[in-house]
Structure formats: C-alpha cells, structure tokens
Amino acid sequence: MADSKPAAEKEKGRFLRGKLSQLGTVAVLILTNVLKIDLGEHIQALRFCFAMTILFVVMVYENIRPRIKRKALRDKREAEEALEGWKKATSRSRKKSVVKKTHEEFQPHVIAMKSPEWGEDEVETKMTYTEYDAWMLNSKLQNLALQVAITVGMHYKLHYTTPLALQVVSQLLAIYQDHLVEIYIKHTEAEGDLERPWAEDDDPMAAMKKRQEQAAAAAAKEQANGGAIEGDTQAGSGQTDNKKKRDGDRDGDGGGG
C-alpha cells in the first residue's frame, strides 16, 4: 500500500506530460473556427512568431547541452572517488577480491531501446544518465527539424497557414513540459514521471507500440489462464467420472454378494 500512491502519481504524471501541447493545438483550431480568424491576414506576423519560436526552442536545447557535459564530468569524478574507496576497502580486507571494476560501474545507468545505427532495429542499450540525456537531446532536435521541414513545406507549397500557428503553440507548451528542461533548467529531481527512461513518453509511435505489446501480453496471459482453468475443469470432471465408475463397481459387487 505504501508504494501504490507514488506509483499512481507517477503514472498520472506520465499521462499528463505532453498533453498540454496537444490541448493547445486543439484550442487553436477551435478558436480560429469559432472566432472565424483569418490567419492569412496576419501572415507576416505569423511567420515571424514561428521563426522566433523555433529559434527559442533550439537555443533552450543548446543551452542544456553544456549542462549535460558538466554533469557528466561531475558524475565521473564521483564515480572515480567511489572506485578508489572500493579499492581501499578491498585492499584492507583479508579476502582479496579478484574482481576488477571501472568507474563506469559506479555510475547510475538506464536501459533504453536504441538503434545502433541509422535504419537498424532498436535494441536494449545500457547508458549512463548523461549519455541517455545527450541521446534524447539529439533526438529532440532531429524531431524538431523534421517538424519544421514539414510545416514549412506545407506553408510554401500548399499555402497552409494553420500549421504555423499550431507549431507556435505546441512547441512553446512542449518545451515548458520537457523532461530535460525540468531537470537541467528548473532543477527538478528526476523522480516520478521524470524518472528515466522517457522514450515512450516523447515518441507517440513508441508509446503506441508499447500499448500494443502490453495488450498482446495481457491477451496471451488471459488465454493461458483460460487454458489452465479449462484443463483443471477437465481434470475435475475426469476425477468425478472415475469416482462415479468406482461407486458403480462397488454397488455391482455388493449386489452380486
């Protein structure tokens, strides 16, 4: 019971994180339709806001990069100190240890699904926290570049203006709730919904794949339990038939006597 409340809060935080940007895009669509706002009349201002928003997001992420590097150096120094302490403790021990350790073994690690090379299947990869953060930072910048390319293409080729407004709102709300911003700029402890890994939270496709895998696992478990129950039922009915047969045989023997 003691762990149920933190677990529930963690799942609630994971569910709410990222939903703010989605609500913002829905609000923009509703307001533009209800108030009948013609975004084409404000195209220059909209382009300026879009460019400044993307520039702001990139600057925020690039400001986080040196913070990750500094944290990596601090973690390495602490791990080296812990390694030296372990070596001194084992040297004083009567029972000498033959195990050789490195400072990386004294750093916290996380296991996440990562593609070794571009286009290859994702595999479970063990990384330190700072390695994971740097990888996520690069992934976020790549996703941002893809979104900008799609939005600009739709605007200049198809003359759509709504995607510009949607990107302005969604990017600002997303950066406000970003995991890296929470940890490295707001200095929030990486606990609860900020606990690594967060790949499923940031990637909608990965989240959908995870839900499908969970649903398939639940169905397989239910089917296995159903088969076990059916087997127990058949075994029970077989035992009942055997008991009836034995009782009938005893009744026949008694009648014959």
Brief sketch in words of this structure:
This protein is mostly helical. It is 73% helix and 5% strand. The chain has a two-stranded antiparallel sheet.
Helix content: over 70%
Tell me the Rg in angstroms: 30 Å
State mean pLDDT (0 to 100 scale). Answer: 77
Structural class: mainly alpha
Quaternary state reads: single chain
Shape label: flat
Kindly report the spatial arrangement of strands forming the biggest sheet: 1-2
Distance between the termini: 65 Å
Features:
257 residues, mainly alpha, 8 helices, 2 strands, 73% helix
Topology:
Layout: H1 4-16, H2 19-34, H3 43-92, E1 109-114, E2 123-128, H4 129-158, H5 162-176, H6 179-184, H7 199-202, H8 204-256
Helix pairs in contact: 2-5, 3-4, 3-5
What would your notes on this structure say?
The structure is a single chain. The chain is mainly α and 257 residues long. Helices cover 73% and strands 5% of the residues. The protein contains 8 helices and 2 strands, in the order H-H-H-E-E-H-H-H-H-H. It has helices at residues 4-16, 19-34, 43-92, 129-158, 162-176, 179-184, 199-202, 204-256, and strands at 109-114, 123-128. It has a two-stranded antiparallel ribbon with strand order 1-2. A hairpin with an 8-residue loop joins strand 1 (109-114) and strand 2. Helix 3 (43-92) packs parallel to helix 5 (162-176). The longest helix has 53 residues, at 204-256. Residues 1-5 have low confidence and may be disordered.
